[in-house]
Amino acid sequence: MAGELRRAVQTVTGPIPVESLGRTLMHEHLLVGAPGWEFDDASAGLSFRDMVERCVDRIEELKSAGYRSLVDPCPRDMGRDVELMREVASRTGFNIICATGFYHSEIGAVSHWKFRMRLDPDAPKRLAETLVRELTEGVGTSGVRPGIVKTATGRAVTPYDLMMLRAAACASLETNTPITTHTEGIHGDTQLETLCAVGVDPRAVIIGHTCGSNDRVYQRSLLQRGAYVGFDRFGYAAANTDENRVSALVSMVRSGYGERIVVSHDCVLCYRGVDHLIPTERSFMRFERQIVPMLRERGLSPGEIDRLTIDNPRAYFAGA
Ligand SMILES: [Zn+2]
């Protein structure tokens, strides 16, 4: 199955032809909740209705700028809510692609799989099976099928993270589903090596948050191996400046890697438990409003810029 061209992408409201994706942001979040949020009784939190309304407003704004699709790569253990995604997608007619997979060992819900690793030599196989089940049968009883596999590493790569990476690779190969990753701007090379050692084609992988690094050698090495890289945190000042991101992006395009870069903001619209503590100035609109003019000023053509949001997401999902 792996390696075949894909004609369709699974969205939370059903499969669509790859050609229908249109302008796409490749890494955004409707809702995030760090494991344990459900035990925080001191936080009133947002109702499902409030979250839907907020997400619908922001997606309508994005639609008005010509966007048709976004990937919400929330892992299973970070508050993923496919019912919320489906409701928002249905209300707006927008394509939302959700993920299966688990977060890294510094922040994810590690206890169960760590414990199981100690007791069960087949734990990695079972882990891959849970991902395959979601990809083929849907999330729980919702009928929503993920269209992408998410995997992640933190500041260090642990044995737990390697198990997660290999399970993601197995599930991707078995179901011919592409992979997107979280990095802290480092260890994308280890991720790629680990995934490819299982047999994944680098063209089926986005190394996420590559714009968090200012190491051009590291960034280029991922592109040279054939992976996509995510310049997917525009507006996230804690991770890097947009000035640095734009300089690196322009340099990669000038070096001939413009077909391997996807863009986004890693914007989170709603947070479980800490929503009232998170500043709201980050926006889905930043790329279009602030970054596109910067790219034009640096001499990128409209075609080179459109490739980042239209052609590259389509080619990645098609497996072209
Ligand atoms: Zn993210």
Describe this structure in words.
By secondary structure, the protein is α/β, with parallel strands linked by helices. It has a single domain, classed as Metal-dependent hydrolases (TIM Barrel, Alpha-Beta Barrel). Helix content is 42%, strand content 16%. The chain is built from ten helices and twelve strands. The chain has an eight-stranded parallel beta sheet with strand order 3-5-6-7-8-9-10-11. The protein has a two-stranded antiparallel ribbon with strand order 1-2. Strands 4-12 form a two-stranded parallel sheet. Helix 2 links the parallel strand 5 and strand 6. It is globular, with a radius of gyration of 18 Å. The mean pLDDT is 95. Zinc ion binds next to loops.
Tally of individual domains:
1
- In CATH, what is the homologous superfamily? Metal-dependent hydrolases
CATH level 1 class label: Alpha Beta
Total beta strands: 12
The fold-level CATH name is: TIM Barrel
**Shape type:** globular
Unreliable stretches (pLDDT < 50, length at least 5) are: none
CATH architectural category: Alpha-Beta Barrel
The arrangement of helices and strands along the chain is EEEEHEHEHHEHEHEHEHEEHH
